[in-house]
Amino acid sequence: MSEFKREHIYLKHIQAATGRLLLVVQLCAFMASLSLLVQLVAIAYFLSALLHPILGDADSLHEQPLVSVFNSNSGNLVFAALAIAGAALVVRVVFQHLADHFAARAGQRACQQARAELTEHWRASLVQQAGKQAPEQAGVLLEPVESLFGYIARYLPQRSQAVMVPAVILIIVFSLDWVAGLFLLVSAPLIPVFMALVGMGAERLNQQHMETLQRLSALFIDRLRNLSLLYTSGRESAATAHIAKAADEYRRINMRTLRVAFLSSAVLEFFAAVAIAALAIYIGFSLLGYIDWGPSQHLSLFSGLLILMLAPEFFQPLRSFAQYYHDRAAALGAASQLLAAQPTGSAPSDIAGPVLSDNTARAAGPEPWLLNYPGGTYRYHPNEPAIDIPAFRLCRGDLMLVTGPSGVGKSTLLRLLTHGDVATDVHGSTIFAPLPGKIALQRQHPWLFAGTVADNLKLFYATANANASDADIDAVLDDVGLTGFAEVEVVEQGRNISGGEAKRIALARCLLAPISDFMLVLDEPLAGLDAATADRVLKRIHSHHKQGQTIVIAAHEHGKGQLREMATHCLAMGITEMQS
Ligand SMILES: Nc1ncnc2c1ncn2[C@@H]1O[C@H](COP(=O)(O)OP(=O)(O)OP(=O)(O)O)[C@@H](O)[C@H]1O
Questions:
Q1: How high is the ipTM of this complex?
Q2: Helix then strand then coil, % of the chain, to nearest 5
Q3: Where are the beta strands (DSSP E) in 68-188?
Q4: How far is the CA of 392 from the centre of ligand 1 (A)?
Q5: Distance CA 564, CA 135 (A)
Q6: Which residue among 408, 553, 557 has the greatest number of ligand 1 atoms within 8 angstroms of its CB, and so is best to mutate?
Q7: Residue 350 CB contacts under 8 Å (≥ 6 apart), including other chains
Q8: Domain at 3-350, CATH class
């Protein structure tokens, strides 16, 4: 799927979250525009009645179809016209206020939806987030999400107004004077054409703008974090210069984006002004009698005034649309950022599905096995040596032990089991499908966030461990040899705890995942554990297995003996035969 299409699908999906609010906004905005038109007709009537005796024109005010609505220009009607103009003004203000109110609500709802989805994706895939820069991720929740507001609250409502309001005005003007109508009809397409031309460049600039801002915030937080190190090594001025350079780059991109925005609106204003001026000349000369062909002979003061007042309103929705078109460009840039920030496997096509949809969708397959791999090879890069993966079959409730010397590819196999990829099997290149269902994966380099150890255990795969009781948490921490660690504060990325402790917290997190919902995939769970703790972890794994949980464990020689006894089968990597 092309990037462009993915972004559009994403924006449509976010738009759907606003429900019927957008429809209400469009309706209110249209009613406000209709009230304005009524107001202009009433004002034109009032002015023409006022100016008629002064100008002494013989034109009848009854000649045009719209004038007939008013029937006569008696004093009562003039007052009625004033009253209608006043009432229309009030109605317009009310509808405009409602439209703005609901538009803001729709925009907020869209932003909330985008933020909620993103945090849910992140919560659901803590493991995949490992190694990503926290400031960069936090930045995605601010600027790009805010860019969706303008798209929903301004661009989308204005898009429908830009079609409906000019169409109504065109009908009115054509019924008054078809030559004037033709003026508007010919000049109207210039605006969308320019919009499209400018929009293409603006979209790319907006993307660059977002990326630069993300880089700047990540750089700034990184330097702040390492302030003391920079100070002790005497590198403060170099760091300051680096930030200044990055800020200047951001300023440059920002100014370029603004330049395009200002230039495009200036061009559009110019075209609208020229069209209105041409129309004013035509009406002026017609009323003075210098033009004596076509409908100009029948142009009255009322219709001339009304057309003149309607002309700016004809261009206004198109101008606003052009102005808000930048919101669309910004939203497309933001959509690509938001999609990139989502973990793999959560492309827009499965946004509406469950968080772990890729794997979950296949969980109820008719095969007796979860995965049946015929054996083959996998390469990280075409030039790198192939990793041999022996044939294996994994069924529900199995405990598969993956063994082999360091570097043989055990972690790689676990990665393939959880994420899938393209591997070469005995039938040629094929997709190595991930295990169907939810997986609690313990990696060698776990990711921990700022909070207590208990917080770190609870926040795992969306709602998986959210309801874990204190007793459950204490028990699992006991089992991994971290008794009393529940309330210990962890700083961002677990920098204040040892590597071994971090691994054990990650192991506890997996062991806490609901047995009936999750498969366990553990990478070296016993590494670094003392004999007594390793024994408790083994007992716990054994109990999980007895309760029917499907478990895959990669293990070195260490602790393999007991694990081998427990395992339903063993996959020895580096040896291309399946053992049982
Ligand atoms: N992201 C990566 N990109 C490129 N090569 C990689 C990547 N990860 C691992 N490798 C390479 O793939 C091979 C297998 O690595 P892997 O980590 O799967 O081995 P392992 O059996 O788990 O080792 P250990 O027991 O030491 O953890 C190694 O040669 C390693 O250098």
A1: 0.95
A2: 65, 10, 25
A3: none
A4: 20
A5: 43
A6: 408
A7: 357, 358
A8: mainly alpha
Would you list the domain boundaries of the chain? 3-350, 354-580
Tracing tokens 């202009």 back to the chain, one arrives at: 40
Integer Cα distance of 70 and 60 in angstroms: 13
> What tokens were used for 445?
């380099």
Q: Are 527 and 558 within 8 A, CB to CB?
A: yes
| Residue 558, both tokens | 């260490």
Distances (CA, A) of 417 to 326, 435, 436, 549: 43, 5, 9, 16
**Cα 119 to Cα 114: distance, rounded to the nearest angstrom:** 9
The residue count of the chain comes to 580
Joined tokens for residue 416: 């393939």
Query: In this predicted structure, what is the pLDDT of residue 34?
Result: 93
Query: Using an 8 Å Cβ cutoff, are 91 and 425 in contact?
Result: no
Q: Which residues, 6 or more positions from 364, have their beta carbon under 8 angstroms from its beta carbon?
A: none
Residue 556 CA, closest ligand 1 atom number: 25
Ligand 1 neighbour 380 (Cβ under 6 A): yes
pLDDT at 342: 67
385 lines ligand 1 (CB under 6 A): no
Ligand 1 atom index nearest CA of 412? 18
Q: What is the CA radius of gyration of the chain?
A: 34
The CATH number given to 354-580 is 3.40.50.300
Q: How many CA atoms lie within 13 A of 245 on its CB side?
A: 7
37 Cβ partners below 8 Å, 6+ apart?
Answer: 168, 169, 172, 310, 313
b/e per residue 494-531 (b: at least 16 CB within 10 A): beebeeebbbbbbbbbbbbbebeebbbbbbbbbebbee
Nearest by Cα to 355 from 122, 515, 113, 141: 122
Residue range 468-517, pLDDT digits in tens: 888 889 999 999 989 888 888 888 777 788 888 888 998 998 999 888 88
Residue 343, judged by CB atoms within 10 A of its CB (0-12, 13-18, 19+), counts as middle
Contact yes or no for 397/569 (Cβ under 8 A)? no
